[in-house]
TrEMBL record:
This is (d)CMP kinase. SUPFAM superfamilies: P-loop containing nucleoside triphosphate hydrolases. It comes from the Eukaryota. InterPro entries: P-loop_NTPase (IPR027417). Gene3D superfamilies: P-loop containing nucleotide triphosphate hydrolases.
Length: 352
């Protein structure tokens, strides 16, 4: 299942990005022996890069990194395979155009760059290619897992806020959950125990027509569900009805059949936001975000793909070490805790 992240920035009038100079900040590292508990608790790029530097010659860490890298690539390939099937199914139904060609992507090698630097480069490109008068702005980020899409979006979000802009996020996962809620509600009303059989083209079209995107009574952009006895805004039920056991159980099945419908809904929502003068940050997989029109498209990649596994290994190590550190009341050093955590992680993958 593909979950797409939107971050909208409310802007009055036209949209302009404040001129800036490209950051020359370098990655901060320190010796593991000197890492404090406070640094470990940050669980951020500084912590991760410090561990990468410290364990660059460690065979144990290399083993963990290779395992995590292979696992990440395998998971990406499996997700892509499922997504392709969903896209092809949508094309066969005529929901999306099989001949659609998106604007070209701008490759960005993030090797040796911090998320802050990547965000600066993206905004610099936007400044160079924006028109003098422009309603809203849409930025699309794609890339393999581990290339830093999520952290880059967070940095872009942060930098836009510093310009005095109001920022909001919206997960496309709620669209899948909304359709699933309608599907399960329909099955209950029709006493149908075979939900997958109910996912016909006509039913899906009917349920999607019950979803709309616009401002709720509070003046905030929101998804409205209106049909089958339901009339509610997603913001009001996203932590209740949309996360009920029944909805959660059937999301994978519904998502397999609704990739096209959700892609179309998302593209229309982005267009509404852009026309309203809102900046939209869109992060996801190419096959889904391709259908959103924008010249600002970036594909993040690592010229050294082994770093994908190394980053993931560092993330697992610092998370495990922090958990262990918080459980201990003695004076064991962070270095000793990290070493013990690494031993345990390597032992776990060896046994598997």
């Amino acid at each position: 299942m593909d979950f797409v992240l939107f971050a909208g920035t409310a802007v009055l009038g036209r949209y302009f990005v404040t001129p800036r100079k490209t950051s020359t900040t370098t990655t901060t590292t320190m010796s593991v022996a000197a890492i404090s508990l406070e640094t470990l608790q940050q669980q951020n790029a500084v912590t991760s890069n410090t561990l990468l530097e410290e364990y660059k010659d460690s065979r144990r860490f290399a083993k963990l990194a290779a395992y995590e890298g292979d696992l990440t690539i395998q998971r990406d390939q499996e997700d892509a395979s499922k997504l392709i099937k969903g896209i092809e199914f949508a094309q066969q139904k005529g929901v999306i155009d099989p001949h659609f060609v998106p604007e070209p992507y701008i490759p960005m090698d993030v090797l040796g760059k911090t998320p802050d630097q990547v965000a600066e480069l993206i905004l610099q490109h936007v400044e160079e290619h924006q028109t003098t008068e422009q309603n809203g702005l849409v930025l699309v980020l794609v890339g393999l897992s581990g290339t830093g899409k999520g952290t880059t979006v967070a940095k872009l979000n942060e930098k836009l806020q510093r310009q005095g802009l109001s920022v909001t996020t919206w997960s496309n996962g709620n669209v899948f959950r909304s359709v699933t809620l309608l599907a399960t509600t329909w099955c209950e009303q029709h006493q149908n125990d075979d939900l997958e059989a109910a996912l016909t083209k006509d039913n899906l079209a009917s349920w999607m027509s019950m979803l709309s995107f616009g401002k709720n009574p509070e003046g905030v952009y929101d998804i409205r569900i209106q049909g089958l006895g339901l009339d509610c805004y997603v913001s009001k039920i996203q932590n209740t009805l949309l996360k009920s056991p029944t909805v959660s159980k059937y999301i994978p099945t519904v998502a397999q059949y609704t990739q096209g419908e959700v892609i179309v809904f998302a593209a229309q929502a982005v267009e509404i936001l852009q026309r309203a003068g809102i900046c939209v940050l869109l992060e996801g997989r190419e096959l889904t975000v391709n259908y959103v029109r924008t010249p600002h498209r970036f594909v993040l990649h690592l010229s050294d793909e082994s770093l994908i596994g190394k980053r993931r290994a560092a993330q697992r190590l610092m998370a495990a070490a922090l958990h262990d550190a918080e459980q201990r009341a003695d004076t064991t050093s962070v270095k000793e805790i990290l070493e013990a955590a690494l031993d345990r992680l390597v032992e776990d993958i060896t046994q598997n």
